[in-house]
Design a protein that fits this description.
392 residues, alpha+beta, Trna Endonuclease, Chain: A, domain 1, 3 domains, 10 helices, 17% strand, globular
Length: 392
């Protein structure tokens, strides 16, 4: 199958269901369900904390990163833009116990501090009559979580001194990386990087959901990849730690040695090889809970899609090649699926791909390459412009 780079989510997806990897990263079939309330609220909290940390670090506003001292305002703007509360479809369980805030929540605008005198909801920035449901419970929950995180005493990595400066040396927030580990391209974004002492660097990843045990975290692809990458980016530090900072629970910290990094690289190489050499991705049989198919496209749908790629009774991966050719710009290696295409059961065999050398051409065309996949290499990667078959 097509392999462009490794991320923790891509590796986990492949291990969970090989055909789901094919759907998401090779033909970019749209999922049956989009964002959910958990991912939406998590993103809102991340952005508010990022803006506040960047302000405290003195980052100049106006760039791609949020910079805002008022984390409440950052959170409010996120809710206004993304309408996060509308993602909440949680209902009470069978015993009647609440599993969150069911949506829509009954509005009590008359007594709500976020309802203005001219009958507008300040969170949604709309007329109270036009707001679908009530955003306040989810918004207040996220705001309380941000305050708790900043003022946390049992793990005070964001503690401030009397001058309003961080007590610990924070090296950066939301540090994106595009690197290679053992020849495997790896991409990702790290929430926070902190110097614990002159010998020790710590990666902190905010988590708003379910927690892992230490043993689970020590084997997690994200934890291990972050540790290997940060050691490469900051070689002056002798010790590396990765902390999954569960904002609602106890953080889990995993120390990683250079030997651990070697094992991580071997694991990444093995995963890349398994994905690249996989020519007949298997489908997971739905469990009694319906997972993972209820968050993918449904077992029946993916069965029909797999059948559409059968030739003489055998599954055949599509042959992919760069869809943009110019004599003045030869094709480079590393083919990527172009985003923005109308992917459905009728068009999946007509996918358009692009090589790194032609990403600019694609940007000026009908489609726009995925910005996460559009970086250029320094020189051609040995491609002569011929078709590249994912069958090898």
């Amino acid at each position: 199958m097509l392999f462009t780079h490794a991320t923790a989510s891509r590796i986990k997806t492949f291990k969970q269901c090989e055909f789901r990897y094919f759907l998401e990263y090779m033909i970019q079939y749209p999922p049956m369900k989009g964002d959910n309330v958990y991912s939406g609220k998590g993103s809102a909290v991340h952005e508010a904390l990022e803006g506040w940390v960047n302000f405290k670090l003195g980052v100049e506003p106006g760039g791609s990163k949020p910079v805002e001292e008022d984390y409440e305002e950052t959170l409010r703007k996120y809710y206004e833009t993304h309408r996060t509360w509308t993602l909440d479809q949680r209902t009470p369980d069978k015993k009647g116990n609440p599993r969150g805030f069911p949506h829509p929540v009954e509005k009590t605008c008359e007594s709500c501090p976020w309802a203005t005198k001219d009958n507008r909801c300040a969170i949604a920035n709309q007329s109270t009559d036009a707001v679908d449901g009530c955003p306040r419970p989810n918004f207040q929950d996220d705001l309380d979580l941000i305050v708790k995180t900043i003022e946390r005493t049992d793990y005070p990595f964001l503690a401030l001194d009397e001058n309003g400066k961080f007590v610990k040396k924070i090296l950066g927030a939301e540090i994106g990386f595009r690197d290679e580990l053992g020849g495997v391209p790896v991409h990702g974004k790290i929430d926070l990087v902190v110097e614990d002492n002159p010998d020790t660097i710590e990666v902190i990843d905010y988590k708003t959901g379910k927690s892992m045990s230490y043993n689970e975290a020590a084997k997690d692809p994200q934890v291990r990849t972050y540790g290997a990458v940060i050691r490469k980016l900051y070689p002056q530090y002798k010790y590396v730690m990765v902390t999954l900072h569960y904002l609602r629970k106890i953080p889990v910290t995993v120390p990683l040695s250079a030997k651990d990094d070697e094992l991580t690289i071997l694991s990444l190489q093995r995963a890349a090889k398994q994905i690249t050499e996989n020519t007949d991705p298997s489908r997971v049989t739905p469990s009694k809970w319906g997972f993972p198919c209820d968050w993918c496209i449904g077992h029946d749908t993916c069965g029909r899609i797999k059948d559409s790629f059968r030739v003489d009774g055998r599954f055949r991966l599509p042959t992919i090649s760069c869809g943009f050719r110019l004599e003045s710009q030869p094709c480079w290696g590393s083919i990527y699926p172009v985003t923005g295409q109308d992917v459905n059961e009728d068009t999946i065999t007509e996918m358009i791909y692009v090589c790194k050398g032609h990403t600019e051409v694609a940007k000026n065309g009908e489609y726009t390459p995925n910005p996460d996949d559009s970086s250029k290499t320094d020189r051609p990667n040995g491609s002569d412009g011929k078709e590249i078959s994912s069958n090898g």
